[in-house]
Amino acid sequence: TLTIGTNFALSRLKKKQIFCISPQRVNVGGKLDIVCFDKTGTLTEDGLDILGIRVVERTAHRFSDILSDAHALLPGAQYERDPTIDYGLHRAALYTMATCHSLRVVDDELVGDPLDLKMFEFTGWSFDEGETKKASFSDEEDQSKLTPAVARPPAGMEFDPDQENGTKNPIDLGILKSFDFVSQLRRASVVVRQFGTTGADVYVKGAPEFPSDYEDLLSHYTHRGFRVIACATKHLQKTNW
What values do phi and psi take at 32, rounded to 5? Predict the structure, then answer.
């Protein structure tokens, strides 16, 4: 009796241009109330794109308007910059996207996590892979043999107009140490030094924190299928490597 009922169900489905390759699933389908689909690769194309960046405005303790490209995030010329904006945070966001990733160069092509790849392509920077030091609890390795990977900005963006007079060095960000993504911590990080300067900077990306409008913005983007990634930084005055 069950087999006959399944055959009738398959016939009715076929008339509606619905084809079932596993007849036993028809009986299971009769018990379903809700069906959920993966939004990427199942109903849409298999890939990611960057919508834009929102930078935290410290004075207002909220997010800025969305910035849709790297030039809007950090203009290359001083005259293009709004004097009321703290571009230090914009610079930190851009540098995080350019350095905090697990990308590798294979046959002169960058490969790695699709999100890392899209974030790096958004910056327009170039990446020269070196022998970066993985995170460990011991610093006994011979540091003199390490050649850090280097991220460099595109033509026209080689210099930072906010640098002090007399220190106009081209922007070369050497990745001294990388901490791969840890699911329990929900973040990844790198230690980076600008060549020609002392100290270093830590760049982190992962699950977002919360300025005052965090909940509203997070809900706005997640309910529209966007993936939300936060970036943060801290400057280190002194390093041992």
Answer: -85, 140
Active site residue 38: yes
Specify burial of residue 93 (Cβ count, 10 A radius: 0-12, 13-18, 19+).
buried
| pLDDT of the chain, 241 residues: tens digit per residue | 678 888 888 888 888 888 888 888 888 887 888 887 665 555 556 677 888 888 887 777 778 888 888 888 888 777 888 887 888 888 899 999 999 998 888 888 888 888 889 999 999 999 988 764 555 544 444 444 557 889 999 888 888 777 654 456 788 899 988 888 887 778 889 999 988 777 899 999 987 665 556 778 778 888 888 888 888 888 887 666 5
- Cα torsion angle, 79, 82, 83, 86, sign: negative
Sign of the Cα pseudo-torsion (213, 214, 218, 221, in order): positive
Annotated active-site residue in 38, 46, 49, 107: 38
Rounded to 5, what percent of the chain is helix, strand, coil?
25, 25, 50
- Half-sphere exposure (Cβ direction) of 153: Cα atoms closer than 13 Å: 19
Residue whose tokens read 């300025």:
211
Q: What is the distance between the alpha carbons of residues 185 and 135, in angstroms, rounded to a whole number?
A: 15
Determine the Cα–Cα distance for residues 193 and 150; give it in Å rounded to an integer: 10
CB atoms within 10 A of CB 191: 23
